[in-house]
Design goal:
Layout lengths: L5 E4 L2 E6 L3 E6 L8 E12 L2 E7 L8 E2 L2 E3 L6 H13 L2 E14 L3 E14 L7 E7 L14 H12 L2
Parallel strand pairs: 4-9
Antiparallel strand pairs: 1-2, 2-3, 4-5, 4-7, 5-6, 5-10, 8-9
């Protein structure tokens, strides 16, 4: 059977051209067709250092990231960030200022990350989901292997914090 119009079958697009001729091409994985995830992340600062965590699970196990997580339906960014830090680190945070939003395409999904400068209001970070954590100076941020989506914010932080 000849595909009518355009069909997506098993990662390929078949389309009818010039009567009965069929063309076959891979489906592009652009941000319009990918799974989309919206995430909030805390850049916790204390005494000139930044708190960072190392993932202990999943495809990016052992990569470093800023603590945070996925937003739930109906949550504001700030509510999501406070909830995630309570769940992941048993810590209450204050949100000091918004830094930036990063859009990034991983091979199988598109992520929107919202980064906030934060401070600890109560508690001391207890690792519940991460395998390691560290307090790093802006100059030390390059000493760990970051999730690809976080690398742009690392450069931004180094520039911003070295000038203040």
């Amino acid at each position: 059977m000849i595909a009518s119009g355009t069909e997506n079958i098993s990662g390929f697009s078949f389309s009818e051209k010039n009567g009965n001729k069929l063309s076959l091409r891979p489906v592009s994985h652009d941000s319009e067709t990918m799974k989309r995830i919206e995430v909030v992340a805390a850049i916790i600062r204390h005494a000139g250092k930044i708190f960072v965590t190392q993932r202990g699970y999943g495809e990016f196990k052992d990569y470093w990231e800023f603590p945070g997580g996925k937003m739930e339906a109906g949550e504001s960014r700030e509510e999501a960030l406070k909830r995630e830090l309570r769940e992941e680190l048993d810590t209450e945070i204050g949100i000091d200022a918004f830094l930036t939003t990063i859009e990034y395409n991983y091979p199988s999904f598109h992520i929107t990350l919202h980064f906030y400068f934060c401070s600890i209001l109560s508690g001391y970070p207890v690792l519940k989901e991460h395998e390691n954590a560290a307090w790093l100076s802006p100059q030390e941020l390059d000493s760990v292997r970051w999730l690809p989506a976080d690398t742009e914010v690392i450069r931004m932080l180094q520039e911003k914090l070295e000038t203040t």
